[in-house]
Amino acid sequence: MQLRQISEKSVVRLCRGEAIIETRTTEIAPGIYRLSTHVTDVAPPAGFTFNQFLILADQPLLFHCGPRSLFPLVSSSVAALVPLDRLRWISFGHIEADECGAMNLWLEAAPHAQVVYSPLGCNISVNDLADRPPRAVAEEEVLDLGGKRVRFIPTPHVPHGWEAQVLYEETTATLFCGDVFTQVGDGEPVTESNIVPTAMAAEDMFGATSITPLTAPTLRKLAELAPALLAIMHGSSFRGDGAGALRSLADEYERRLNVAPVR
Fold it and tell me: Gene3D superfamilies under this entry (predicted)?
C-alpha cells in the first residue's frame, strides 16, 4: 500500500528550548492517521517518538492523548484532519503521562468527546482523573464508529500497567499496540522490516515490560487476531505478518523469563 504523507501545511512545528520539534501526519491505513512527534531529550542521541493515532469515521476516535506539553502540536495536527468539535471518543493504552497527560485538555477542546476505557481502568483511575465521566466498555466489546469498528481488549501488565489495553480496528485489521514493540529513534512511519530486535534493544535500555508468566500467552492471544498492521506508540508501525511478529516477541519474553535470576 502507498503511504500518504499529509501536506507540509499539516506538519506543525514548535520551539522547545533551543530545539524545534514537529508533529508529522501520515495516513498509515485507510482512515487511520499516525501523528508522530520526535523528541531528542528522551533516549539520546537517537531520541524517541510519541505517536497518537486518529481513526476517522462518523464518530472519530483518538488513541493516545500525548503529554500535556505536546498538546498544542498534536491538537493542531488533528484539527487539520477533522474539526476538534467532531472528535467523539478518546482512549489510550494505560495510565501514564504520555498516554493520557493531555486528556483533560482534549476534553476541553472537544466538547462532544468522551473517554472510553475498560471498567477496571475507569474504576481505578479515569473516573477520578477525567473532567467528564468516561464510558466503560466490557472486555472484547466492539464500538461501532460508523465506517470503522474498534474492539477493546484488556492486556493486564502487558507491557505494563494493571489497566493496560489494546484496540483492534476490524475493517483495516489494525492492532493499536500501545507500548508493545516500543523502539527508540525516528524511523519511517511504517516499516515491513523485523521490529522484534529493535523492540528488544529498547527493552534492554528501559526495562519497561512487566515480564510475567502471562506476558507471552497474552501476546500469543493477540496474534490470533492476525493483524495486518501494528500501530505502535513509540517508533515505526509495522505492516506485514503481525501475528508472526507478536509470536516472536512472545518467544523472546518467554526466554527472558526462563533465564531470569532468582532473587
Answer: Ribonuclease Z/Hydroxyacylglutathione hydrolase-like
